């Protein structure tokens, strides 16, 4: 484990210690999703047509900000994302057995394929197959957790509560219900 943000993640007891680590790598460096691109396009349009003022910084934004993201980019991996995951795959190969699991989202499947390409490309492994499984109920659990779906502005609050995640797979709480592990 390289680092833990202790300001966000606290053990339930001072006597707890880490004994197992599972890494979930959702995807590599990517373009924004269609939803984010639409919001950026709206902001760009608002600034160009509605922002008032003669300040130099505002004029620079209005004349130099080029909105080059397009909706067809929809979260697709950039070349750096592919390269980063290949590099990560090479490093992790030395650690032993690796189980690959992904959601069905194209960016997640592409990330998994890139990581596997890094594993097989390191020593030109052609006689070994690394399979992956798709599990949307586990890898996209947040689609069913009300507090996470509430929106990015509430993201920190939803992460801090912890109740929905601690309830376990398939046991999603009703909105407003707050269960904690003993």
Task: State the distance separating the first and last CA atoms.
Answer: 26 Å
Number of helical regions: 8
Class from helix and strand fractions? mainly alpha
> Which H/E pattern describes the elements?
HHHEHEHHHH
Unreliable runs: 160-182
Instruction: Give the biggest sheet.
Output: 2 strands, parallel
Task: Work out the helicity level.
Answer: 40-55%
Task: Give the averaged pLDDT, no decimals.
Answer: 72
* Gross morphology: extended
How does this model look, in words?
Residues 160-182 are annotated as: Disordered. Keywords: Hydrolase. This is Putative multiple inositol polyphosphate phosphatase 1-like. With 182 residues, the protein is mainly alpha-helical. The two termini are 26 Å apart. The chain has eight helices and two strands. The chain has helices at residues 34-50, 56-64, 79-93, 106-122, 136-139, 146-149, 155-161, 163-166, and strands spanning 100-102, 132-134. The protein has a two-stranded parallel ribbon with strand order 1-2. It has two domains: 34-139, no CATH class; 140-182, no CATH class.
